[in-house]
Hints:
Blueprint: H1 12-19, H2 23-35, H3 61-80, E1 87-90, E2 93-96, E3 104-110, E4 116-118, E5 121-127, H4 139-143, E6 147-151, H5 160-163, E7 169-173, H6 177-182, H7 184-187, E8 195-199, H8 202-205, H9 210-221, E9 226-230, H10 232-246, E10 255-256, H11 259-270, E11 271-277, H12 304-313, E12 319-320, H13 322-333, E13 338-341, H14 352-356
Parallel strand pairs: 5-6, 5-11, 6-7, 7-8, 8-9, 10-12, 11-13
Antiparallel strand pairs: 1-2, 3-4, 3-9
Amino acid sequence: MTTLDLSSVEAGASVRRERCVIEQNCGFVKLLSVRLNNTPGLNGPNYTLHNMKTRTCHGITLIGFVTVLTSLLFLYNSSSTDTPEDQIQSDGHQMNVHSQQTSYLEGYSSIIDHKPLRMHCRSCALVISSGHMTGSNRGEEIDRKECVIRMNDAPTKGYQSDVGQRTSLRVVAHSSMQRVLRNRLELLNTNQDTYFVFWGPGNYMRRGGLVYNNLRLMKQAMPKLQVYVISQLKMLQFDELFKKETGKDRKRSNSWLSTGWFTMAIAMEVCDRIDVYGMIPPEFCKSPKPSVPYHYYEPAGPDECTMYVSHELDRHGSHHRFITEKRVFANWASMFNIYFHQPEWRPAPVAENSTDSS
C-alpha cells in the first residue's frame, strides 16, 4: 500500500512527526493518499520545511562547542516548561503541539482572491444536525474543542445548551445556499471568523456559475467573510474515495454524496482528533426505534431512520447513501482518532492482519 513519499527529503520524517505526532493522526493523511493513489492531481497537505542555516567558524572549535551546548540547554528548557495547555490528551497519548504549523489544504479555493484554505485543529467537534442532539446538554463540551464544525444552515441560536454556540468551519451544499442567505443575520453576519466551504456540481460552482456568482456577491457585501469552494478536481477525488471505500460508483447509481461525507472527509484533513456528535451507527435503523427528527431544529420534520432507509433503498432519482457512508465512517473510526457521541458507540477494531498490510 502506497504512502506519502517523504524519503527523498531527510527532514521529511521530522516534519511528519511534528504534524502527526500520534501515529493515528498520520493515518488521516495516509488514508486519503492510499485511497486516491491513482487519482490525478493528488498532492495531499503541503508542509513547509524550514532549513536552518548555521554559520561555522573554521578553526575556532571553542565557539562551535559553546554553540552546541547553548542549543542543548535551549531545547532542555523548552521541553521542561511546556504547560498542560501546550499539550493535547488523546487516547492515552500526549502530543506536544507547540511547534505544529498550519498547512495549506489543496482543492479549496477562496472566492475572489482564490487563495487555498489554511486550517489545522488539534481537536474538533463535528456536530451532526440530527434530532439526537435535542436534550443532549452537550453544548459546553462541544464549545471546549479547539474547532467546531457544522453543516449547511444548522443554527445554534436557541440550541446552545445542546449543540454549542461556536462555529469554526461550516460545510454547505449548493442546495442549502439560499437557506443560509435567508438566515444570514445569524449564520453570516455574526460568524465572520468562520470558514465557509461550499460544494456542488461543476456547472454551479465554476467561475460564472450560478452559485459561484451568488457567493461572489455575498463576499463583496461582506468582505471579511471567509468563503471557499471545493474545486472540481477535489470533487472527483471525493467521488473516487467513495468508490474505493465502498465499491459503488456514485454516478452510475444516480446518487449524491451527502454534505456529511464532505464534512467528515474535510475534518480528516483538518483535525488531529474528531469527536462526532449526533451520528447514529450504520446498523441503528435495522430495528424499530422511537421516532427522532432528521434535524434537531425541525422537530416536526421527517423521521431520521425513515429518511436514511428510503434514500439507501432508492434506485431512481437523486438520493444519498447515508447508511453506506456511515459504514465507511465506522471503518475509519476503527483506525483513526474518530469518536462518536450522542449516541455513544464505537466500531469493532480492525483485525491486526489487515492493518499490517498498510
